[in-house]
Amino acid sequence: NAGVMQNPRHLVRRRGQEARLRCSPMKGHSHVYWYRQLPEEGLKFMVYLQKENIIDESGMPKERFSAEFPKEGPSILRIQQVVRGDSAAYFCASSPQVHQPQHFGDGTRLSIL
Amino acid sequence: GENVEQHPSTLSVQEGDSAVIKCTYSDSASNYFPWYKQELGKGPQLIIDIRSNVGEKKDQRIAVTLNKTAKHFSLHITETQPEDSAVYFCAALGVGGSSNTGKLIFGQGTTLQVKP
Fold first, then answer.
1. A–B: how many Cβ contacts below 8 A?
2. Least CB-CB distance to B43: which of A99, A101, A104?
3. CA-CA 20 to 30 A from A87: which of A17, A31, A35, B57?
4. CB-closest option in B43, B103, B106 to A48
5. Beta bridge pairs of residue B56
6. What beta strand segments (E) does B8-107 contain?
7. Is the CB of residue B30 less than 8 Å away from at least one CB of chain A?
8. How far apart are CA A87 and CA A39, in angstroms?
9. For residue B40, with 0-12 CB atoms within 10 Å meaning exposed, 13-18 middle and 19 or more buried, which class applies?
10. pLDDT of residue B99
11. Tens digit of pLDDT for each residue in B58-106?
């Protein structure tokens, strides 16, 4: 079985551009979670989605950040008008149910020039 | 707010020795505690987890213990090997209102070095 797939693995953007990060959950998993990891730090929760629904976005910055998990296709984390402070590794995880173990992808490393 | 504290931040052991990493959590309603291993350039890999209805769980050289009263849990790795070298994260499942939200609250991580 394929694991959680994230792409791109590395993304470079200039300040002011948009970044789109994609996550395909494991087969059979309908719950998706996004986390952000700054260098030398732990992971910080951003958002939890089920198909077509945002369940918990308490960790998402109020501006410039959005997430979706459409009926068909991968989950997307979108960052508009990126700034230097957005540079981080963004990880996606999935689980079959909310109380089941979360399995992570290898992340997208976002660099802002 | 919800918080997980992890110690130590770095740990160096000789091959064959045991390693112990400890975490404390703030929300007494948390009921699920996974441990992840992260290698350089990779995503966190789930290595073991424990739910609040048990006090200990073991999987080969890895064990986790949970003390609900004291709100702390520990990872124990026995007979360490160089390939155990990585960053280890503990986490607690956040609780929002009357149900779990799916949000994992992570500790700050422990860099484990196993010397051959």
1. 67
2. A104
3. A31
4. B103
5. B65
6. 10-14, 19-25, 32-38, 45-51, 56-59, 62-67, 72-77, 86-96, 99-106
7. no
8. 9
9. exposed
10. 55
11. 999 999 999 999 999 999 999 999 999 999 999 999 876 545 578 999 9
Residues of A with Cβ-Cβ distance to B93 under 8 angstroms: 99
* DSSP secondary structure, B79-116, as one string: S--GGG-EEEEEEEEEEETTEEEEEEEE---EEEEEE-
**pLDDT, position B52:** 85
B36/A contact by beta carbon, under 8 A: yes
Q: What is the least distance, in Å, from the CA of B17 to any CA of chain A?
A: 26
In chain A, the residue whose alpha carbon lies closest to the alpha carbon of B30 is A99
CA A83 to the chain's CA centroid:
17
Query: Which residue, chain included where needed, has tokens 């300040």?
Result: A15
pLDDT in tens, A27-56: 999 999 999 999 878 899 999 999 889 999
The closest alpha carbon to A40, from B38, B48, B76, belongs to B38
Contact A43/B107, CB-based, under 8 Å?
no
B34 interaction partners in chain A (CB closer than 8 Å): 101-102
Are residues A22 and A80 in contact, defined by beta-carbon separation less than 8 angstroms?
no
Q: Closest partner residue to B34 among A42, A44, A101, by Cβ?
A: A101
By C-alpha distance, the chain A residue nearest B51 is A99
- Would you state the structure tokens that stand for residue B4, as one six-digit string? 């997980």
Cβ atoms < 10 Å from Cβ of A104: 22
